[in-house]
Amino acid sequence: MSSCIGNVLRLSIFGQSHSPAIGCTLDGLPAGIPVDLAKLQRFLDRRAPGRSATATSRREADAPEVLSGITDGHTNGAPFAAIIRNTNTRSQDYAGLRRVPRPGHADYPARVKYGNWHDVAGGGHFSGRLTAPLCIAGGIALQALEGVGVHISAHIASLGPEGIEDEPLNPLELDEEQLGAILANEFPCISPATAARMQEAILTAKRELDSVGGVIECAAYGMPVGVGDPMFEGIENRIARIAFGIPAVKGVEFGAGFSAANLTGSENNDPYRMVAGHPQPISNRAGGILGGISTGMPIIWRMAVKPTPSIGRTQQSVDLDTGEDTELIVRGRHDPCIVPRAVPVAEAACALALLDVLIEDGRFPGPAPRGSEPCLVDDPASSDAPRPTPRPKPSASSRQRLPTP
Fold first, then answer.
1. What's the confidence (pLDDT) of residue 304?
2. pLDDT number for residue 89
3. 367-400 pLDDT, tens per residue?
4. How far apart are CA 301 and CA 241, in angstroms?
5. Rounded to 10 degrees, what is the CA torsion of 378, 384, 385, 389?
6. Closest CA to 340 of 239, 240, 202, 164
7. Residue pLDDT, tens place only, 220-256
8. C-alpha dihedral over 105, 108, 109, 110, to 10 degrees?
């Protein structure tokens, strides 16, 4: 299975929904990045199941066990590796799905591709459970980016058939009040009133044995201008590749997105003005990206999340063993809406893509070397031992110069 991504920062995700553990490896992290594991856990808690009435009743601690890559609270240059143990599984709920596939799930195409050897319990490797290790890696990337002034935040932009809409994120500059409101609300919205309406819509769908989807908006503030590449390695490409690895994501757009097709060129273009001595767009319908390269404006993107396909209603299916039509009622514990728990996943995907391109472009400022520990034995500075004679500095005329570009 293709579960690896990244150019310089290489992420690999492993495990299944009901396997003993799930986890990730992240290779290419610069050494010396401070990592706050308590902060990482708080980030993972935003995605963890079993925390509210609008989520699945399957409760997992989602406490990562770091195996390598961190020493004394900092990345050490070795590949980072961590696991999360699965402790609350009920695989018997999935008996029969090998022969009667669930509509909206990968059961049937997976059976064909893997010759019926795939793991069906909890959705196996196709499960949204695999976004937990994605958030481990993404949570570290978020901390690395925050250390260099790049801040990422997401919220539910709209939800359900009624299209309940939240206030959009500021497309021009970071708004501390907005970001604070998202984290302060139990539900990831800017407006508390909108959050209450969305919660009620989810609970209504749950009572009706149905589900709803929605759109998540994500913004990255502080990205420098000139990062990225044209064609196939643009910032849009990098974010979208990871976003489409999130189960249930069916669409991704940047800036004005599909609505740009309904505008004229004069309406869609972002005019430039000189601001503090530098060119700057005064609007941001491009979403902070032109030609695959960052413009210096906030990177704004959205991802569409489909309704949870596992619903309690009777659905039409087929018996793959007998070749006959049949009906199916999905058992197990499932979210009536996965959108709220997918908000931090969008942040993680964005952070991994941006950290990867910053490192690849040489624009990520590596931490300063660690100071040497004092030597307590045979320290020339604290003994009468003879000190080496310093080498004379080369004269200005003898120094080699780098060629001027």
1. 98
2. 61
3. 888 885 544 434 434 334 444 444 443 343 333 3
4. 13
5. 130
6. 202
7. 999 999 999 999 999 999 999 999 999 999 999 999 9
8. 90
Six-digit token string for 168: 């959009």
The whole-angstrom separation of Cα 196 and Cα 377 is 65
Query: Which residues of the chain are under the pLDDT cut of 50?
Result: 374-405
285: which 2 tokens?
Answer: 């319908």
Q: Within a 13 Å sphere around the CA of 105, how many CA atoms are in the beta-carbon half?
A: 28
Task: Retrieve residue 116's tokens.
Answer: 């019926």
Give the pLDDT confidence score for residue 285 in this predicted structure: 98
d(CA 220, CA 316): 42
Long-range (24+ apart) CB contacts under 8 A made by 234-238 are: 234/289, 234/291, 234/292, 234/293, 235/289, 235/292, 235/293, 235/294, 235/299, 235/353, 235/354, 235/357, 236/289, 236/292, 236/301, 237/292, 238/353, 238/354, 238/356, 238/357
Rounded CA separation 235/258 (Å): 18
Q: What are phi and psi of 192, to 5 degrees?
A: -60, -35
Strands 278-281 and 272-275: antiparallel
**What pLDDT, on the 0 to 100 scale, is given for residue 159?**
98
SS3 string of the chain?
CCCEECCCCEEEEECCCCCCEEEEEEECCCCCCECCHHHHHHHHHHHCCCCCCCCCCCCCCCCCEEEECEECCEECCCCEEEEEECCCCCHHHHCCCCCCCCCCCCHHHHHHHCCCCCCCHHHHHHCHHHHHHHHHHHHHHHHHHHCCCCEEEEEEEEECCCCEECCCCCCCCCCHHHHHHHHHCCCCCCCHHHHHHHHHHHHHHHHCCCCCCEEEEEEEECCCCCCECCHHHCHHHHHHHHHCCCCCEEEEEECCHHHHHHCCHHHHCCCEEEECCEEEECCCCCCCEECCEECCCCEEEEEEECCCCCCCCCEEEEECCCCEEEEECCCCCCCCCCHHHHHHHHHHHHHHHHHHHHHHCCCCCCCCCCCCCCCCCCCHHHCCCCCCCCCCCCCCCCCCCCCCC
80: its two tokens: 């980072």
Exposed, middle or buried, 119 (CB in 10 Å: 0-12/13-18/19+)?
Answer: buried
Q: How many CB atoms lie within 10 A of CB 104?
A: 16
